[in-house]
DNA sequence: CGGATTTGACCTGCGC
DNA sequence: GCGCAGGTCAAATCCG
């Protein structure tokens, strides 16, 4: 199946259900739409990647995890603690790069395409 | 059998 | 007012 479909998305520890996929002409890239499978969770995930460049993957988290934390936290026991308020920190759009980490401008919360 | 995933069609919003 | 783009939902299918 792994022909030229959706690439491997980075597992964030949450469970997502794909509910749609479309090609965005505005940016000439594919876009997949995911929704949190947890009840009471209005968190959504949006993944977009180039139609030709498999290395260009972009994951954008939209909404907040109102159900608390992930089913399998990567480091549950430290700052995570297991508080719903922790997830509430994501009240804004959290942009996560699938492979590359922005080495500069950490305050860059806006979405700036390449 | 259940759950997950995929594709298509439909609807809404914005621009011109 | 119409057209285009983007977004969402539903149904069908496949795998475990």
TrEMBL record:
Record flagged with keyword Lipid biosynthesis: no
Cellular component aspect of the GO annotation: nucleus
SMART domains: WRKY
Ranges for region Disordered: 60-114
Keyword Transcription tagged: yes
Principal location listed in the UniProt entry: nucleus
Record key words, sorted: DNA-binding, Nucleus, Transcription, Transcription regulation
Subcellular location: Nucleus
Protein name: WRKY transcription factor 18-like
Native source species: Punica granatum
Gene: LOC116210444
């Amino acid at each position: 199946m792994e022909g030229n479909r959706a690439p491997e998305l980075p597992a964030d520890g949450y469970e997502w259900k794909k509910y749609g996929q479309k090609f965005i002409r505005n940016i000439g890239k594919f876009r997949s739409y995911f929704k949190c499978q947890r009840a009471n969770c209005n968190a959504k995930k949006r993944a977009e990647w180039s139609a030709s460049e498999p290395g260009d993957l972009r994951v954008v988290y939209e909404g907040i995890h109102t159900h608390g934390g992930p089913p399998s936290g990567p480091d549950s026991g430290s700052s995570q603690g297991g508080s719903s308020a922790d997830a509430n920190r994501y009240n804004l759009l959290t942009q996560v790069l699938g492979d590359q980490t922005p080495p500069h401008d950490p305050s860059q919360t806006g979405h700036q395409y390449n």
